[in-house]
Every structure is written in structure tokens, then in C-alpha cells.
Amino acid sequence: METRLAPSSPGLPPWLNIGMRVALAVFGAYGFGVLAGAAFVRGLPFASPRDAVAFSLMLGFLLDACAVVWVFAAATVLRAALGLFLPALFLGAWLHFSG
Amino acid sequence: MLPPLRFDQPRPLRLSMAWLHTWTGLLLGWLLFAIFASGSLSFFRSEINFWMHPELHRLRDDARAIAHARRILEREAPDSRQWTITLPGPRDPTLFVAWRVDGASMASSATARAQDRANAPTGGQRRPAHGLRPETRRLALDPSTGEILKLREGSGATFLFRFHFQLHGVGWFIGRWIVGVAAMIMLVALVSGVIIHRNIFKDFFTFRPNKGKRSWLDAHALVGVVSLPFHFAITFSGLLLLGALLMPSVVRSGYSNVPNAPNFTMDIRGGRDRFNLAPPSGKPAALAELAPILDAAQNAWGGEKAGSVVVTNPGDASATVAVIQTHGNSLANRGVARRALFDGATGARLETPIEASPSAIVAVWNALVTLHMGRFATPLQRWLLFLAGVSGTLMIASGLIMWRVSRFKTPGRSEDAPFGYRLVEVLNVSGIAGWLVALGAYFWACRLLPDALAARGDWEVRVFFLAWVVSFVHAAFREHLRAWVEQLRFSGALIALLPLINGLTGGAPLFRSVVAGPWQVAGFDIFALAAGALLLFVARKVHQAEADDSPITDG
User: Fold this and answer.
1) Which stretches in chain B have pLDDT values below 70?
2) Do B187 and A65 touch (CB under 8 A)?
3) According to the model, what pLDDT value does residue B500 have?
4) In chain B, N or C: fewer CB atoms in 10 Å?
């Protein structure tokens, strides 16, 4: 229980810390789920659009939920944000440049 | 008690998850309670609907329904391209006939459709065309006489069913989004709940009664764990059912946005093809007798009952008759029922086209969605689904009560509570007991509002919401435990008296239905009695706690 997981985020008042995490959980996690879903549809070799969208919606919702858990589990707000934005950036860039 | 948590400081994962579980659970808990409760009832939508139409309780099925259906369809819809006969069954003894009104083609113009509408015989509930689904009309018939039944106007169980996925009065789009967000929050609460619940199996066998907060925690964990797979499946599949709405960009990346192009929602339900009919040959031919066809199909299935009969191109040489089972057995195949196909002119059995088995991905999707809708369920499975839904409802309710119990120590003395705690108290009473009051009032309104009342169905719904609002106001002005006792008592009385109201307002009375049927009505009445008695018992318990100030709700 007393294991120190990570350093604290100095300088942020507690309410702002929670507020930012809530915003990340609501918008960031959803955006991440949608981006990942869209990328799966585009990137994975499915037999039909029906398979592609069904698979990606299921995974998109699961990733959305996991991302919310991540945002509140991460040690600092910065880490929570980077954990969402770096993969999202990668997925977004890939979607953009793959046409 | 967990130590206070600060997100700006190092903290163990379990503490973060406990925070997440607590606040996601509280945020929309009352809405989730209403969604789970009305959704659980929706597993018995047909039975509740039937109870709410006492004018149908006298109907008896004497196996002549199919002939009556044909006679009425030949009179009312001789030119229709497709008839659907829904046979009386164990869940609803009413005979329904429906027919397509769009004429030659699915893509008929608006004027052609308007003409069809003008030519269509009077009567029949209109089901307007939706997307690619053609417009149909429907009549309810007495299965033993073929007489057209005038159904009393009412919102029925359909109101509860619709409420559980799109709420009421906010428009379906916004309503479904709110429910979708609530479902996502529920999923997060479930995941975080499992993470914080370390000793999931040990705690399952632990119950410490009369220990205040510990008892509530044990109860919450018990109903949570006992049907945890159900809670996950029902929440996740709920999201999938709203999936195309909640994540439209994912759908758009797989389907083009052109009107009339293939569309995911139709595609996943089995495609548009099922609405495209084989063209008629143009040569008239009398339709074969339907009763022998029905018998042949049921014999071929070893006595398994047929649920419906679909006649395509009646009166044409190319007519076909499809006999379809009541419920399917395959979860993966959307619970699609077995069907037998016959030549409509000769009555000979035709080769049934083999249903392509779905891909693995679609099979998983279908299994989840079919479970959610309970389409496949036999009576026993339906009760299990319902009880699992009830356990989810109780899990939400106990969690909400625990939030209050673990924070504010003096039961009953709530005037000096901070505003936030007081708000949770009021919402707990009116969201849980008050919802049950509203439900009871809704059933009473269904039976007591005069038949002639214009927009009667809307009034039923108004009574539901009015009762809910009144229970909120009541909870706000009463002591916390007093409010619980009074609303639990009132809801218990309303619900326990439903069998009496049923017998007095034209329904099949319990003493008769319990020996001679209809069984759905007997089942509804017995369940109402039991549920009402249980609510009165709980009210008594809370009353005792209030009287001797014993720490039943204390921390």
C-alpha cells in the first residue's frame, strides 16, 4: 500500500490536477478510442467493412474505458496526457498520411 | 476507511481506482439505476404489455388463428406484396397481421407511396418506412374469431423499453447519447470496481449483517460479483447497440456516407436484402391452404412451435410461404430462428437457402447484442436474465446508499449535513424508492385513466414523471430515514395492490389466472405481490432502524 509509485506533480493545485484528469478522461480517452477504431478499420485486413467496423467499435469502446483508467492511474498529469497523446498522434499521423 | 487521496501526490493504484469507482458510480448512479431497472423489466416487455391490455386477457388460442389471419389479410390487403402473420404464442396470445404497403418497388417515389397510403384500407397501425425498411400496417386480431381488436391506447411496456435506451422528452438523439455516456461511465466503474476488489472470491462468501457500512459493502460486492459477467456483457453490448451513434467516425471510416449506400447498422443486422422481395411472375394463382403448411413445418421440427408465417407475393404463381420458429437457438446468428420455406401455390416444401454463418467477429458482436435483447431466451433463461438485471440494479442502489452511509455518521439527523451530502440523500430516496413509486403509479394510471381520454398514452407517461417529481420534493422536505420509510411503504403498497387493480378493472383476476391462465398475467400479479411485500418488509427494517437509532445505516 505504501509503495511510492512515482514522483508528484509539484506546483499544480489539487483541484486543477483532478480537473485536468477529468477533462483528459472525458475528451482524451474518447478521442483515443475513436482514433484507434478508425485506424483499425483502415489498417487491418478485414474480409468486409462489416467485420472491420464491428471489430473496431468493440475495441474502440474497450480502449476508451482502459484509457480512462490510465488517466487516473498515471502518476502525474503530464504522464497521463503523454500516454494518451503520443499514441493518438501516431495514429492520427498514420491515418492522415495513409490517405 | 481509506486515507484521503490526493492526485498530486504519490498514491497506490488501488486508491486511485477506489476514487474513480466512487465518483463515476455516484455521478450518474441514479440515471443508471433507472436504466437498469427499466431495462430489466424490458426482458418481459411482451408479458407486461399484455398485462397492460386487460381487453386482451380473455383471448384464447384454439389453433384456428392462421385461417382467420388469411381471411382478414385477403380482405384488407389483397394487393400487398408481403404479409406477416404473428401467431399467438405463450408470451402473447394476440394474433397480429401486418402487411407491406409500398407497392411495386422499395425505391418507390414519394407520390407513389402517398397514393398507396390513400388506397390502403382504413384501420391498421401504421409503421412508417424507416431508412430502407418499408412501411407496414398492423392489425391485432382475436385468434379464435378473427375479429379485429381495438386496442386501448396506451404507452405500455414500450415506454419503459424506450426509456432504458433513449430516456424521454429530450429527443431520441440526445437521449441515446446520454444513455451511451452513462453506459461508458458504468463500464469504467465496473473495471475500477474489479481492480479495487482484491479478494473477489473470499469476499463473495462474506456477509456481515448489521454492521453498518461493512454490511452495505458486502451486499454491494455480493450482487456485483454474483453476476459480474452479466454486468460487463450488458453494459458493453449496450454500448455496441448505440455504437454507430457514439462513434460515428469509426463507422464512416469503413462505409461511405452516400445515401442508400450500404450502411453499417443495416449490414450488421443482416443486410438490406431481407427487405428486397422476389418480383412476382405476374401469373395469378390461388394461395395454398396455410394450415397444412404450418403443420408440415412444425412436424419437421419435431413439434417445435412456429412463431410467424410470412407470405411473399400472395395470389401470384411465384408466391412463397416462410414458416419461422418462435425463437432461435444460435447466439452467434443473432438468435435468428429456424425457417422452413414452401411454394405458395402448391404448398410443396422448398429447399431453404442456407444461411451463411457469420464471420468470427460478427459472431462475437451478435452473441453480445442478442444476449442484451434476450431474443433467444426460453422462459427459464428469460427469468435468469431478468434476475441478473435486478442484481445489477441492486448493485447500483447499494453503491449509492454506501456513499451516503460511509460519509455521514448520524442517521436521520440530516439538517446539519453539508449541501452535497443532503443532495445525495434526497436523490437516493427519490432515485431509488421514488422510481419505484413512479413505476407503481404508471401501472395504476394504465388501468385507471378513462378509456376515452385523448392522448391517453401520454397521460400515463405524465403520471410516471409527476410521481417521480413529487417523490423528489417529498424527499427534500422529510427527514432522510423518514423519507425512505414513507416512499418504500408507498411504492410497496402501490405495487402489491396491482393484482387487485387488475382484477377490478377488467383484467383476468389472480384467483382465476393462477389456475386457468393467462400465465403471463398470473406471473405479473404474483411477482407484483412478492415485490410489493418485499418493499414493505424493507420499509419496516428501515423504520426499526430509525426508531431505535440502531446503526443499521451507521458507519
Assistant:
1) 1-4, 102-132, 199-206, 257, 259-260, 271-274, 327-336, 408-416, 549-555
2) yes
3) 97
4) N
8 Å CB contact of B20 and A69: yes
Domain span at residue B289 reads 277-372
Q: Which residue of A has its CA nearest to B190?
A: A65
| Per-residue confidence (pLDDT) for residue B409, from 0 to 100 | 63
DSSP state of B274: G
Instruction: Name the phi and psi angles at A5, rounded to 5.
Output: -85, -40
Name the residue in chain B with its Cα closest to that of A44.
B254
ipTM of predicted assembly, 2 dp: 0.91
Contacts of B16 in chain A (CB under 8 A): 72-73
Q: Residue B492: inside a domain, yes or no?
A: no
Report the chain A residue with the minimal C-alpha distance to residue B23.
Answer: A22
Residue-wise pLDDT tens digits, B143-198: 999 999 988 899 999 999 999 999 999 999 999 999 999 999 999 999 999 998 87
Q: Is B269 on the interface with A (CB under 8 A)?
A: no
Q: What is the overall mean pLDDT for chain A?
A: 88
**Domain count across chain B:** 2
Domain ranges of chain A: 15-97
Which grid cell sits at B423?
A: 443532495
Last residue of a domain, one of B356, B372, B388: B372
Q: To which H or E segment does residue B350 belong?
A: strand B349-350
The answer to the question of residue B302 being in a domain is yes
**Chain A residues in contact with B240 (beta carbon < 8 A):** 57-58, 61
Percent helix, strand and coil across chain A, each to the nearest 5: 75, 0, 25
Write down how long chain A is.
99
Within a domain: B68: yes
Residue A29, burial from CB neighbour count under 10 angstroms (0-12, 13-18, 19+): buried
- CB–CB of B255 and A8 under 8 A? no
Instruction: Please report residues of A whose CB lies closer than 8 A to that of B27.
Output: none
- What's the pLDDT tens digit per position in B446-471? 999 999 899 999 999 999 999 999 99
Kindly state whether B250 is in contact with chain A, defined as any CB-CB distance less than 8 angstroms.
yes
Q: Quote the distance between the C-alpha of residue B276 and its chain's center.
A: 29
A–B: how many Cβ contacts below 8 A? 119
C-alpha cell, B132: 430502407
Q: Give me the pLDDT at residue B447, please.
A: 95
In a domain, B130, yes or no: yes
- Chain B contact present for A98, CB below 8 A: no
